[in-house]
Amino acid sequence: MVRKTALGSVAAAALVAAPVMAQDAIDVTLGVLNDRSGIYADLSGEGSVIAAQMAVEDFMAEDKGLNVEILSADHQNKPDVASNIARQWYDQDGVDAILDVPTSSAALAVADITAEMGGAFINSGAGSTELTRGQCQPTTVHWTYDTAALAIGTGGAMTDADTSWFFLTADYAFGHSLEEETSRVVEEAGGEVVGTVRHPFPATDFSSFLLQAQGSGANVIGLANAGGDTVNAIKQASEFGITQAGQSLAALLMFVTDVHALGAQTAQGLVLTEAFYWDLNDATREWSARFEERHGSKPTMVHAGVYSGTMHYLRGVEATGSTDGETVVEWMKANPFDDPLFGQGYVREDGRAIHDMYLFEVKTPEESTGEWDLYNLLATIPAEEAFLPMEGGGCEFVEAAG
């Protein structure tokens, strides 16, 4: 089902440098495409629609002459469904930009269609580094995180020369990318990968996979999955007593909603990497309180990324007076951002948004002062260290220009 939310009306505003008349207002249609009913609904879903709405309101789009409408749809974590919706949006519904799109296989499909149709794709939910490397597109911006940043943060923190890893990996593009990137970090740190097992996406019973991981004798069991898969795997690992027996779990992609669902008693001590946490500073706390009032839960980094990416996109529309995808994305790359949720950063030529990342540890029940007081900050990973370098990444249009 496609939902519509109107968030603006025609208004006179100063666009670029010169005043324009009301009839020159720009119509902007944004499409939030994500999982609204399945395994990623809590970390993405309706919360991403609310985040986009908040961005339009906080940008005061109507006052600036932008008449913004938001559509939303459920891609069911299926690339063919995502492709069909994206094409319909561009062909029939006048969508100018697509936002969010968790599930890397779906995101890669949407990136290709967006480039073909002249739109802009501001991704917050997917993790594959291919979005800015071998399968990059000039109209894609990868805002929030990627598998390399997760590997650098969590993989680097949990590995030394004596560490062995076994991966439990979701069998699709995101899981493969996360396993590959973390393996690279582990081996560069002198650690060893002793094995891997791939599970269907999504899955509910992890018992046989966990028994293989337990039998490997690895120091660390790396969970290269996300959302409900990660939650279920951690619950079942706890039931099997895996961590009590001396093996550690590495939640390579975990969201605050996952930790909240598990509770501090089960999740305590987990080390994880995020791009955003609601309790980082006054600005994140203020925005998160407004989000929670509307959504009923704290925001994930995906929600925060939808908000911030939408804000920067709208700045580009206002500055250029255009909704052409290449035009707006070029402006986004040429102009840095100073964002209340992500801090100072910029969008590289390959589309990768560069900003700080954070390494957290889940608090013990005794440390936590409330149901959402879940993380201790272990380290800030500087923006220039958090992501893979652009050089040698295999992005064709970057290499052609350079």
Automatic annotation (TrEMBL):
User: Which range is the signal sequence, renumbered to this chain?
Assistant: 1-22
According to the UniProt entry, the coiled-coil residues are none
Swiss-Prot/TrEMBL GO biological process terms: amino acid transport
The record's section on CDD domains has:
PBP1_SBP-like (cd06327)
- Annotated Leucine-binding protein domain ranges read 28-363
Question: What keywords were assigned to this record?
Answer: Amino-acid transport, Signal, Transport
Keyword Nucleus on entry? no
- Note whether Signal occurs among the keywords: yes
Instruction: Tell me which family the UniProt entry assigns to this protein.
Output: Belongs to the leucine-binding protein family.
Q: Identify this protein by name.
A: Amino acid/amide ABC transporter substrate-binding protein, HAAT family
